[in-house]
Fold:
Amino acid sequence: MRHINLFKKVCDVSTTDCFDYNNYLVFAVDKSQVSRAIGKNGCNIKKLSIILRRRIKVIPLPGGLSDMREFISALTDEIPINTLELKDQTVMIGANKQTKAMLIGRNRAREQELGEILSRLFGIKKVRIG
Structure:
């Protein structure tokens, strides 16, 4: 809650979502407000990063299940995803060998973080990367 309030003070943009992913503190804001939140030459993000002593990322908030592919790409630093399928509350992400390793992470840490984020935003029960 304090991160969201600080984000509102520094960037003058409201957000409802803040979470950790891959050692970043990620703020999800409305698509029309992303550039305003980042600031000119990234000044707002730099200021937040100095205050919180963490790396900061701002991504557009998904509107629904149709935006899931864009959301995952923005969250994972534009790592190329070959396929994205949704079956029975399970998301199947298809990627090549090197990309797959980057998405899973050491000890499946990134995969678990991604699963928690998708379950909170989209109601997804399980994430499978293959």
